[in-house]
Design goal:
- An 8-stranded mixed beta sheet has the order 5-4-13-14-15-12-16-18, sandwiched between helices.
- The protein is built from 13 helices and 18 strands.
- The termini are far apart.
- The protein is globular.
- It is α/β, with parallel strands linked by helices and 475 residues long.
């Protein structure tokens, strides 16, 4: 009997350092030096004599300005599932991050709001908050400190395939001169705009199909000075469609390195909330108190905006013809609605897939079907978590998968119950934090508990109204 997706996911999400690694390659090359590429390089360092990371962008002090990551100035979240993997691959990573300025959001220091109501505290939730450039720079430093990993500046132009397997890559620098890097194994970590499929198709190989879900989301982020140590250091607020203030879909705040706050608003379609400093502060004044506290200090720099048209995933797992010794990871395979914060954690779990596959004594001169099957479990998990609520957005017209109406009802029941039920909140967070597979949430026991919780809340509200008590403040 095939192993369940939930069990595979649980194994991939392990915190145990890998064992029984052995050298398989002389030289491995990773195309792309973002989080996904760096973590792939960390895995390959256990299996290759030499690892080269080919990066397009020059690294500067203002890493948020990198051309290859236009969204890096926006709020990013290192979910607990991703943090566990970073601690797995880099001993003491969390402690190092906090020592250098990241903020530890222990239970009680994180707030979540739904339709203006503060959700019950999850005593197991613990996050590390920091900007994307800060976290990525820590990962990069740890990876390049490995004795067998180096970086090369260049823009990838091709992957060379001979006798059915990848044997090298080509890239050009600012001088336009093309350089060839020989390779025994190649990883595509070139992000959403990866051209690997086009290169393969041009040389007679199959190109993976791409599924797109239009989301049309606009992100707006601003930094503020953080002059005092607050009790609450991170939070998120979200609303049903008919409850949203000023076109804000989600809103999030977090304390980050450098004594700063980051505050983010998201809006769909024509909604671009908080586009000016004045509008940004006005919206914060209408949100729960921690937002108002964070926005009360000096704004640092400009309001930054970013637009993402769609979520997408490429079906590498479905290809019948694919070169050996070649895989793709991170956003090059799948990228999701950024409000769910799945990007860095998905990349970390892709690294776990690569490690498990390389330690399984794979047939290296055949396509990496075993790796892509493991990766599909991670991709499907993240897609399932984000696609069901996204399909409910009024500007998205499907296509709706089989069983969508039931899945949406179940999701709504569970989400409503997280406001007051600690156990449901813990189970829900385990899935959204990517430490558990979505199938573990949609069990009869959890759904029944959620329905009972919601029924009790509705009956309690009716009793309160009959007694003349005021309705709860929706913030």
């Amino acid at each position: 009997m095939p192993e369940s997706a939930a069990r595979v996911f649980d194994r991939l999400a392990t915190t145990e350092p890998p064992t029984h690694t052995r050298t398989l390659f002389d030289r491995a090359v990773v195309l792309g030096g973002s989080v996904a590429g760096l973590l792939a390089a960390r895995v390959l360092a256990d299996h290759a004599e030499r690892v080269v990371v080919v990066e397009r962008d020059e690294r500067t002090e203002r890493a948020e300005e990198r051309r290859g990551v236009p969204q890096s100035a926006q709020v990013h979240t290192l979910l607990p599932g991703g943090r566990r993997q970073l601690d797995r691959w880099f001993e003491g990573f969390s402690k190092e991050a906090v020592a250098e300025g990241a903020v530890l959001a222990k239970p009680g220091r994180f707030r979540a709001y739904f339709n203006g109501e503060e959700k019950v505290d999850d005593p197991t939730a613990e996050l590390i908050t920091g900007s994307r450039p800060f976290l990525e720079s820590l990962v990069r430093r740890r990876v390049l400190a490995l004795p067998n990993v180096t970086a090369a500046r260049g823009r990838a132009t091709a992957v060379d395939v001979v006798d059915g397997r990848a044997v090298g890559v080509r890239h050009t620098g600012d001088d336009g001169v093309e350089v060839t890097e020989e390779a025994d194994f190649v990883v595509d970590a070139m992000g959403r705009s990866s051209r690997l499929g086009d290169w393969l198709e041009a040389t007679g190989w199959e190109k993976p199909s791409m599924e797109r879900m239009p989301i049309d989301i606009n992100y707006t982020t601003a930094y503020f000075r953080r002059s005092a140590e607050p009790e609450v250091v991170a939070g998120i607020s979200f609303w049903d469609e008919d409850e949203r203030p000023d076109g804000v879909a989600p809103a999030a705040f977090q304390a980050v390195e450098g004594g700063r706050w980051m505050i983010m608003f998201g809006g769909y379609g024509d909604d671009r909330p908080g586009a000016t400093p004045e509008e940004f502060r006005r919206i914060c004044d209408r949100l729960p108190e921690p937002f108002r506290t964070a926005a009360s200090e000096e704004m640092l720099g400009d309001v930054r905006q970013y637009k993402q048209a769609d979520s997408r995933r490429r079906a590498y797992h479905a290809l019948e013809r694919f070169p050996a010794r070649l895989v793709s990871v991170g956003d090059a395979v799948a990228s999701f609605n950024p409000i769910y914060g799945q990007g860095m954690t998905s990349a970390a779990l892709h690294a776990s897939c690569l490690s498990e596959w390389l330690r399984s004594e794979p047939a290296l001169d055949a396509p990496a079907t075993g790796f892509f099957a493991l990766q599909k479990v991670v991709v499907d998990s993240a897609w399932q978590t984000s696609a069901t609520p996204d399909l409910a957005l009024p500007h998205i017209g499907g296509p709706y998968p089989r069983g969508y109406r039931v899945a949406r009802w179940v999701t709504g029941q569970i989400l409503d119950a997280t406001v007051t039920d600690v156990e449901v909140a813990k189970r829900f967070n385990a899935v959204t934090f990517m430490t558990a597979h979505p199938n573990t949430l949609a069990t009869p026991g959890t759904v029944l508990r959620a329905v009972r919780t919601n029924l009790g809340r509705r009956l309690g509200r009716r009793s309160s109204r009959r007694a003349g008590e005021p309705r709860p403040d929706r913030g």
